[in-house]
Design goal:
Strand 2 and strand 3 form a beta hairpin. It contains 12 helices and 5 strands. Helix 3 packs antiparallel against helix 8 and helix 11 packs parallel to helix 12. With about 425 residues, the protein is mainly alpha-helical.
Length: about 425
């Protein structure tokens, strides 16, 4: 349906696009203070979101939100790895400086040991083997953890690859059970389809977090493997010197890892702040641009209706979750309904919205001269506008002519009803 009406916009369904602009008796869309409302108790953010989608500005915000979400996942995975002791961690800048000072001392002490060491002894291989054994034990623990994470990731991937097929036709069922209540079956099928989409999003988020954690564990495995390789290149020293060298080298390595991880944590936090700030700025800019062009177009239409003598309705979008709509210095019923009409006409002209529906309840509270101008605006668009009006003869002569020329269906009592008679008359 969207493609037929040239309404193929990202993440926007045909129903969501047009239903906000069906303003008929009995629907919540008649609230003159909430022109973007589609249903009772619908949050304002849904209306703002739908408006941005109509203006094709939602996709750029969506991409920035994805960057923010990725930054959150990466930071969370890093913190989780530190919490579970996969990574050496410090939490303050003072600890960072203390580590730097200690590293300077250790590097000098290790250099002195190497300079003063004697030739290696026969038991060097034994010592190296013992150190290697400790490293292999740590490596074994990390490898088991890696396997567990990989298994969980693989399970999630398998679940996501399974495609659930939801029934769209019940002709065969009706053939054997003609009295089946299809509405309940359809509602149940729609519920499970929505639940499936929600679970898919949650699986994807968990999959991203697991992948980040796998990468961190893989880094630790690589470090231990590198340490095993470095054992072969330890200078030949005496037993006592070798032990001292190993202890100081291990301490130095831990301090380096702690400070490197602190640097990475700060970088991840800063990255999240940056993408969040960029998202906030983008949302503000997109909202401001959208609000400005809508208000400008409403001024144009309002001036046409009232010859520039009346104030125009104003849309103020505070953020992605809050907005206000009213006509300054004019809170009369007719003015508020006129505001809805002017807003709709502005959206109709500036977006790919294909249709408007206005019930008579919107127009009958507006003065006749203004109704005439509104009808003229209706006729100037090539898009579809459906209106309902009664008491046609009470409007201006020009308005009556427009109605007569554009009427699709004309109903009247005593034979001119939609089905030939009035259903509320007693027999």
């Amino acid at each position: 349906m969207s493609s037929k009406f040239n309404l193929d916009l990202p993440d926007l369904t045909f129903r969501n696009a047009i239903s906000r602009f069906f303003r008929v008796h009995g629907r919540e869309t008649l609230d003159s203070k909430l022109p973007l409302q589609n249903a009772a108790k619908e949050p304002m953010r849904a209306g703002v979101d739908g408006l941005l989608k109509l203006f094709n500005r939602h996709d750029e915000i969506k991409r920035q939100k994805e960057l923010q979400e990725n930054a959150k996942i990466e930071e969370s995975a890093f913190k989780s790895a530190q919490k579970h002791k996969y990574l050496q961690a410090i939490s303050t800048k003072d600890a960072y400086k203390t580590n730097e000072q200690r590293m300077d001392v250790l590097e000098k002490e290790i250099e002195a040991l190497i300079r003063t060491s004697n030739a290696g002894f026969a038991d060097l291989d034994t010592i190296i083997t013992a150190n290697a054994s400790e490293l292999r034990q740590g490596l074994s623990i990390l490898q088991k953890e890696y396997i567990c994470l990989a298994d969980e990731l693989n399970s999630i991937t398998i679940v996501q690859e399974k495609r659930l097929v939801f029934e769209k036709s019940y002709e065969e069922l009706l053939e054997f059970f003609p009295n089946t209540n299809l509405s309940k079956l359809v509602a149940n099928e729609q519920f499970h389809e929505k639940t499936s989409k929600l679970l898919k999003a949650q699986y994807k988020k968990r999959e991203d977090a697991l992948q980040k954690q796998l990468n961190l564990v893989a880094e630790q495995i690589a470090r231990l493997e590198m340490k095993l390789a470095e054992l072969e290149n330890i200078p030949t020293v005496t037993h006592a010197v070798l032990n001292t060298h190993a202890e100081k080298s291990a301490e130095l390595q831990l301090l380096r890892e702690s400070n490197n991880n602190y640097d990475k944590k700060i970088a991840l936090v800063q990255r999240l702040k940056e993408v969040t700030a960029e998202l906030d700025e983008l949302v503000k800019r997109v909202i401001s641009d959208t609000e400005t062009i809508i208000n400008a177009k409403m001024v144009e239409f309002n001036d046409f209706i009232y010859n520039g003598l009346r104030t125009s309705p104003k849309l103020t979008i505070r953020d992605s979750e809050h907005y206000t709509f009213f006509t300054p210095d004019d809170l009369g019923t007719g003015s508020m309904h006129k505001g809805l009409i002017v807003f709709d006409l502005a959206i109709l002209q500036m977006t790919q919205l294909p249709i408007l529906v206005h019930d008579s309840i919107l127009l009958k509270q507006i003065e006749d001269v203004a109704v005439e101008k509104i009808l003229q605006l209706y006729t100037e668009t090539e898009k579809q506008i459906f209106i309902v009006l009664d008491k046609q003869d009470s409007f201006t002569e020009t308005a009556q002519e427009i109605l007569q020329e554009t009427a699709v269906l004309n109903l009247y009592p005593n034979g001119g009803e939609l089905f030939g008679r009035s259903w509320n008359h007693k027999e």
